[in-house]
Amino acid sequence: MTLPSIDAHTRRGYLKRLVAVGGTAALAACVELSPGDEAVPTGDPTNRPASQHAWNDVLRSDADGNLLAPEHHILLPLELEGEPDERSREQVEQTFRSLERAYEFSPDGVLFTVNYSPAYFEAIGESPPIPRPEPLTSIEGNIDLDDADVLIHLASDSPQVVLEAEEALLGNEPEPNGVEMEAALTDIFAPGDPRRTGFVGEGLPVEMAREEGIDLPEELHEDAPFLMGFRSGFAEAQAPESRVTIDDGPYEGGSTMHIESLELNLRQWFEQDDHFLRVAQMFSPEHAQEELVGEIGERLDQSTGVFGDIADRTADDARTEGLVGHAQKAARARDEDGTPPLLRRDFNTLDGGSAGVHFLSHQRTIADFVRVREAMAGEDLSLGRRLNNGILQYIFVRSRGNYLTPPRSLRALPTESA
Ligand code: HEM
pTM of the predicted model, to two decimals? Predict the structure, then answer.
């Protein structure tokens, strides 16, 4: 892939774009541009949580106390080459430990999870502990279904770190952050398809789109953390890590991961409707009428307040207002005691030159995801399947993938028979 030209771009923005480009040339360009940048802290593999998805303790918070995802993300697919055995298991574990030595367990270093698809379990002759992905709603049509064996989710606040970590795993960077890799995934896995990337953070959607030369509607606020313009991930609407952790069986301590890749029609979202309608469709009609949200969600602190009355009113709103909000609808699928079942770690993407979201979530079972996604689809409501039905008119599902996120102790080529 050709590297973007630097002349037209700021150095900072250019570095961030390189994550989407990927590969050793992008990494070399990154290193050349940031020699002597602030030192990245190294890490200690002996001091990590038992659950791979347990990131919350090290994430930063915003001023309201909501956890902030790391800014830069890569979803690296891998295909298994040959049959796993004890030697390959050891090599894979050594690779992950080397990476953990190279980088602190934090957004300043790198956070990662290693996730296994149903195809992996079938390849090793075991019955998959998670279902194969399938379209979940009647409007999805012909979507792609992830079929790589493994998907590694890498995340960091530093574009260089996330790129370098990827290259280190693939055996193309022997000394990430100056620390020697004792092994790499080479010969056990080959890079798969599609590699996906993205970002999240205040101001990043506008900044990254500018860098990419992608024309976004002017209505998208400069400070918006997400491409559709609103803050997301309020603490009260996120599952606690314990709620998404598998609590018995061979993968106890693990989780499941679903990735729904979506394309966005931002022109229609921003130009067809006004702010009032955008708030109503994203949150609820009441949020729009009572002006509860503000420009990008700054009036909300740790909760949208949809759970309870507003979620319970969804079917009535469909009948009387002819419109319901996305958050209102999705909150109908919370547990009876009000606990949200999904831990959302979704991020924006400009992969392929168009605006989208890689909606990544952890949950205890894929059935939990399906339950929430069906509530979001709102096919039970007296509304059209897309129009005025939350944000469904503006989002287009392109692919889905289901994965097991084993506990850290089983992250290297897991098998029930080990
Ligand atoms: C373009 C894609 C999407 C955007 C921009 C988006 C945005 C938002 C926003 C702004 C909120 C309200 C703030 C918050 O509670 O964090 C929200 C809530 C939520 N969204 Fe989405 N979302 C998207 C896709 C999805 C998908 C695919 C799901 C999967 C089921 C989903 C599930 C949820 C859930 C569970 C909530 C919280 C509801 C509750 O309060 O219990 N979202 N989303």
Answer: 0.96
